[in-house]
Amino acid sequence: MLIRPLAEKDYQAVTSLANQVHGHGYFTIESLHEMHLQGVSHSISACFVLEMNLSVVGFRITFAPKQWFIDQWCSPELWGLEPESVCYFKSNTLHESVRGKGYGQQLLQRSIQAVKLQGGKAGIGHIWCQSPNNAAIRYFERAGAAHIKTHKNRWHDPKEYQGFNCQVCRGQCHCSAEEMLLRFE
Prior knowledge:
By secondary structure, the protein is an alpha+beta fold. It has helices spanning 11-22, 29-38, 103-117, 135-142, and strands at 2-5, 40-41, 44-45, 48-52, 55-63, 86-94, 122-128, 146-151, 177-183. The strands form two sheets. Strands 1-4-5-6-7-9-8 form a seven-stranded mixed sheet, with helices on both faces. The chain has a two-stranded antiparallel ribbon with strand order 2-3. β2 (40-41) and β3 form a beta hairpin. Residues 1-185 form the N-acetyltransferase domain.
């Protein structure tokens, strides 16, 4: 297994994996390109892929501090930190064949290392409450993240998620997200 920075050559594989795991329309090549740009600061990327036998089997998309928009789904007044020092953990996705083996934590740690070099002190994420066996929330809790706030229907906005067909809801998404903050010590 190899963890390395996301590159343009990975866009098709990452988009395919994202749509396979989360549902059709979760990522497009264009949206991934924009997210990749948001992950770079001071020429350092906080986005990584997990490669096995020259195939992408996982990825972590993280937006650098000051490279993302704090929207209505964020609660910076509850973070106890300057929002400018906080990155955004957008997506961590693994192919089912490599889940439960610690690769998600390894991808997270690589992003944290990069964000620290970018000047970040913490990261916020909207963690999928409907993940099988509550795996997504348990993953973030194990990393040391604190619960901030639950947001119902987080991915329901048809403008923002046009064409997204949620794997759980079998159509437009009504899943909840747990806003969680991970401080870097």
